[in-house]
Amino acid sequence: MSELFDRVDALIASRAPLPPPAERKRLRQAHGFTLDEVAEALQVRRATVSGWESGKTEPRPPERDAYARLLNKLAELYPADAGTPAPAKDTGAGEAFTSAPVQATEARSPSTAPASESAAMAVCENTPPRPSTNSAAPAAASRPARTALPSSTSRQPGARKAAPANTPADGADPRFVNGPLAVVDVDADGQALAYCVGGLVLDVPAKSIPSLVEWTLKEARLGQPKLSGPGKDGDPLLVLTESACERYGLPITLTDEERLAGRLPEGHKAIKQLARQDWKLTGRGFGPWARIYRPAQGAERSCVQLCIPSWHALDARHWDDAAQLPPAELAQLLGTYAVRVMTPRGSTAVTGLELMTAFHPPTRASEPDENGRRHSEHNPGSLGKDPVDPAPCEVPDGHPLLKDLPRFHRRTPTETLMEEVFDWARPLTDAECEKRYLVGIDVNMAFAAGANGLVVGLGAPTNVKKPVFDAKLPGSWLVDMSHVDLSRVKSGKEWVQLDADLMPSPFTPSGERPTAPAWYETRSVAYAVELGYDVAPIEANVRYETGRYLDSWYNRLRDAYLATMADLGVPADLPPQEFLKAMDGYKERDAQLAIVVSAIKATAKGAIGKLRERPRGGGWKPGQPWPALARPTWRPDIRAAVISRARINMHRKIVKHAAFTGQYPVAINSDCAVYASDGPSPLDFLPYRDGKPLPGGWRLGVNPGMVKWEGTQTVLWGEGLREQFNAPDLNLARYIKDGQVTNKDTGE
């Protein structure tokens, strides 16, 4: 009879209602579990658990019974009305901030319960969560793990923890046991609190900006280990909320004058306080991203960075509404970015540039001399500590190298290197007008992909007259490309016939065929040779010291992007149909991780743009230097190399696709290409066979360099738009995503 009762109880439990999706997620996060941990315990895929929490799918027996048991156990620990601590965001690779691992054998111990139920019980009964086993996690291995407070000791309302609150896990750096950053806020009782990654909250006794800096360096145990041997550890970052600004005598918002200047005036009380304590500010002063330091004493650094969201430190184009998040959630979001990329050093573009330097510091310690002393020496593979002048053709208008040009001189293609992204469109053919749809595809992280494996110049250029072209030498070449005929080109080892009128020239951003000599980056000239045409350069500025300077930078950003997309339910190597399905609404699965993805993409793209930063602010006159020129990373030649390669990569796929299918793009804007199609999906015009793409052509996937669906509109929409604006060549790729014609700046 007992066995019969057990079966009845199991039947009732199998139909017991589950909490709503949002509550499922709250309970998991309240206990500090990651999606990976729950998925492994229940012996299902991570995406399955994510689907249960988003409400897209519902669990089925036998997993449903074990999942219900897990949620019931968690609900007992964290009732909805008990004021549980703010849930920590899943960080994927940020699982580096988890406590000591639970032995897997405990979770798999024999039991009379089904395997999935037994594992769920083990999960509930072990408080310290295990690190994620997500194989897509980025360089968590390159950043030592740290221990977070177990759930039983996380700060509840009214509880206080003084730093240091954690003990380092095996291999962790005890100096940075509390993570890379903290968000400082002031509660209703007037107590300043530092919200760290992983749900940790620290009391902050400091009453002024100088004492806050001292506390951060001496007690908070914040920061990040260096990314490379000769590099420097990451300085701790404090994010000040509005209440923290008030607490420390800072304005909540900047005046119009201060905003335009990008800083507080030198006479501000906080700046005077710092000066009295011998603290200094960098050249950008006390602005939205302020760096406060004392000159280094030997290997010891004393530096703290402040981020003030209410001063617009977090650009909404890349960080969306992160500035409005509660302190704990903002700490987790920025912490996820910090673990996967690096601690923010300013805008995403600035951080991307700093990431390059972090992997290739300009100097390193020499071998000991005869007296046993080490000295600073050039670090091979870096750009060095001093800026180098590019060639005159590589610099933008107004550069000091061009100061002798007439005031209103307009440089010709024989005087300036114009390696930019595509901005090209053409009228639809009659056959294309008979199709129903226009479908846009977008290259994932096109600039980052262009940097992958790219050999760039490390030093100054050498000018050569009448050189023989060498594809191994990065630089700029003055050469006539007008003879390259796209109607007959080599694709691989075969010559193919194409309709040159229906595709852009790869040698100009406008897609127009060149008619005279012009300056090109090495990759563009090499592509002309690849297409089967000889080249005869007239002049060149080449660099003999070369290296793959951007490889580590690319790998870091790629891994960060892939890990975060996997957390959002879009793992790598999905079949094309499943990939399109996974990408549908992926941002809604976790709004904060979606912001991290946006910031990672902006870091890659912004850093490449920063390599040729233009003058900013008033007072500058053409011919005068501007601050960015003093950076060794002001390298317009490297920017040109990346953009040239990204553009050529797109064109190579266009040629492969056209040669195989006879289809040509109707518009290209940067990394988005639009094709006319009979159906609304990319799979309606991309030639897949048995799930495999055309070799060398467009390929759907999440990896950098692959493409995703950008948007679909009707042919009638496109023709109507062009008629409305009386522009037969209106670039429809700009508006294909949502169909709206707007001048909104997306920061891309």
Please explain how this structure is put together.
31% of the residues lie in helices and 14% in strands. The chain is of the alpha+beta class and 748 residues long. The longest helix is centred in the last third of the chain and has 26 residues, at 636-661. It is globular.
Secondary structure elements and their pairing?
Elements: H1 2-14, H2 21-30, H3 35-42, H4 46-54, H5 63-77, H6 104-107, H7 115-125, E1 181-186, E2 192-196, E3 201-204, H8 209-220, E4 237-240, H9 242-247, H10 256-261, H11 269-276, E5 280-281, E6 289-297, E7 300-307, H12 316-319, H13 327-340, H14 348-359, E8 363-365, E9 376-378, E10 423-425, H15 430-433, E11 437-443, H16 446-451, E12 456-457, E13 462-465, E14 475-480, E15 488-491, E16 494-497, E17 517-521, H17 522-530, E18 539-542, E19 546-547, H18 551-567, H19 576-583, H20 591-610, H21 636-661, E20 667-669, E21 672-677, E22 707-714, H22 715-724
Parallel strand pairs: 1-4, 4-7
Antiparallel strand pairs: 1-2, 2-3, 5-6, 6-7, 8-9, 10-20, 11-21, 11-22, 12-19, 13-18, 14-17, 14-18, 15-16, 20-21
